[in-house]
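Sync notes, pocket subgroup
Present: LS, DG
LS reminded everyone that the earlier model was apo-only. Rerun requested with iron/sulfur cluster included. Inputs:
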Amino acid sequence: MKITTAIFDLDGTLLNTLGDLCDSVNCAVMRRGFPAVTEEQTRQRVGNGVRNLIRQCIPENKCTEAMIDICLDEFRTAYTERMMNRTQPYDGIQPLLKQLKKAGVSVGVLSNKYDLAAKSLIRHYFGDLVQITYGERPDTPRKPDPTSALQLLRELGGDPATTLYIGDSAVDMQTAKNAGLTAVGVTWGFRSAAELKAAGADALVDAPAELLPLFERGLFNVDAICKAFTSRGFGFTYFPTAADALPYLTDTCAGRSVTLGGSMTLQEMGFPDAFSNSTAVHWHWVRKGEYFQKPDIYLSSANALSENGEVVNIDGTGNRVSATLFGPKRCIFVCGINKLCPDLESAVERARHVAAPLNAKRLGVQTPCAVDGKCHDCKSPARICRAMTIHMGPPLGMERCEIVLIGEPLGY
Ligand code: SF4
């Protein structure tokens, strides 16, 4: 299911604000003669509103409500002057927001930072890439209370079923849960993956680019996908990252003859270097035109997988798709999560209209799709789409046909 609305946290999710927050806290507390705090201490204390941050930065024996008020005023003055000194968007956030805008996703920001600062920062760094921003406002409870999240959702015109709430702290995960939204934890921010998991994150991402597949198709249920493939007789193994999958593949291939189908996925994963010392590897990308169709193991990616347990591939020469049907004792399809589609129809659509044009562009062939990235069902002599296979189950006679699904985007 496509995601149509996103609610982002601000500090630690979109912007690295730690330096300016820490400097402003120190302006306030040092003026009162209290010790300075470090950026690490600030990192641990943000997330529950600035009053709480200041409370934790005043020595216990001086920490009265009156003293918090004084320091809070000084913090606000200092932060207003310096909040854009050292603050920067995290790498990959600007491109992500641009992509979401292009895809028509409505984007809002919900922060426990005071409202004026939250709005100023978002306007300065992201302009119209964010539609609505709410910071901490009088008479409205802070996160993790769901009031502001639900108000923001209404104003963005979002549906909870197709909305992701994205943040870097336990408070964010709790806010999402309290509002009935899907909680996505980001691990590049102020808190650990363990804290996000313990707070109920539905998914964790390590880089902004990993969010895009979630927007394209929502979260996926690995158990249901595993069942869809295994009930058809395929083997199925899931790994969260390519680095996790690599040892499994190298161990499986060690001592056996292996052929690799032309595959950007495998190349991005570091094949065949990962196991070229432990086995005989045949790869026509290395020795051009040399096709060895009867190895112990044939490794390929796929152009698309359906969540109903089907594998879709398009080929030009035919060596790749033929080897996945007949010849090898064993075939392993290694696929990033970007290949997963809700059903067979969308898998065929992906293979034809996403994977094939991208491959034509990569190969630099003389086809219309290589120019504009769209399939024209061309009759060009250079057409790379000559045959399409749909594996509905493992081919008879093959010892094992397996899907290795990896929870990050890989290849086309
Ligand atoms: S059919 Fe032609 S235009 Fe369409 S993706 Fe294949 S090569 Fe490109």
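DG: Residues 1 and 217 are 5 Å apart (CA to CA).
LS: The first helix runs from residue 18 to 31.
Action: DG to write up.
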